[in-house]
Automatic annotation (TrEMBL):
InterPro entries: DUF3097_C (IPR021447), DUF3097_N (IPR053883)
A family per Pfam: DUF3097_N
Lineage summary: Bacteria, Bacillati, Actinomycetota, Actinomycetes, Kitasatosporales
Organism: Streptomyces monashensis
Start and end residues of each DUF3097 domain: 20-79, 108-265
Protein name: DUF3097 domain-containing protein
Tree of life domain: Bacteria
Amino acid sequence: MRQYSADLTPPWKKSPPVPEVAAEPGLVVEEPGTGFCGAVIRCEAGTVTLEDRFGKHRVFPLEPRGFLLEGRVVTLVRPSAAPVRPTRTASGSVAVPGARARVARAGRIYVEGRHDAELVEKVWGDDLRVEGVVVEYLEGVDDLPSIVADFAPGPDARLGVLVDHLVPGTKEWRIAESVTSEHALVVGHPYIDIWEAVKPSSLGIAGWPRVPHGQDWKTGVCRALGWPSENTSAVWQAILKRVGSYKDLEPELLGRVEELIDFVTGSGGA
C-alpha cells in the first residue's frame, strides 16, 4: 500500500512564512521567550551569541521563528562564509578600498566632549581619514573664543565646531555667534547630550526619558531606564556598540557633521 506524506494541516492553522535573516555581527534582535535583546557577536553551528547593552552575553539556538527583528518574527540563519566587502562607509559614503589616510590638514573639527568625538569617529572616521581631517574635543564652549583666537583660522586652515544643545538666545549661542567667521563655522544640534542623537529604536528603548531640570542628565537617564547610573562611561560604551552606521543616528546630527566636513575640506561653498 502506497504511503503519502501529504500535509493535512488545515490552511488556517498553518503558521505564515517568516523571512530568513543572516545573523551578521552587530544585528540587534530579541529572543521573545526571555525578552533578552542584544547584538549578534558570534554565530556558530546551531547557535547565536547576543550581547546586551550592559555587555552581558547569552547563547540561543538557531530555531525557526526564534527571534524578533524590529518587532517582526524572523528566522536567523548563519551568514554566508564569504565576507562581502562593504561598498559604503558607516556614514553612507562610497567606500574606497585600499585608500590611504591623507596627511592631516591644517583645518580641524572640534566637538564638545569625548563621547561626541568617539561617535563622530565611529561613523565618519573612514571619511575623515581620506580627507585628512582631525577631530578634537573641547570641554564646554566657555573657552571657545580663546581657542579660536589661538587657532587663527584662515583660508588654508578652516575650523569647524560642533556644539551640544545650541539654542538661540542662550549664552552658548552668543559665544558661537561671536566666533563665527568666513573661516570658522560653529553649528549645533538640539540634543542635551550626544547620547540623544542615537535613535532610541537602535537601543531597544521607546524613547529618551525627560530628566528634571537641575539633575545630571546622564545619571537621570540611566536611572529612568534601569541602566547602571554609577558608571555612565560604561553605559556610553554599550550605547556606542549599538551604532553601526549613520542609520542609527538622528538626522539633526547627521546634517551638522556633514556640514562641518564640507566646510573644513572646502567642498561646501565659501
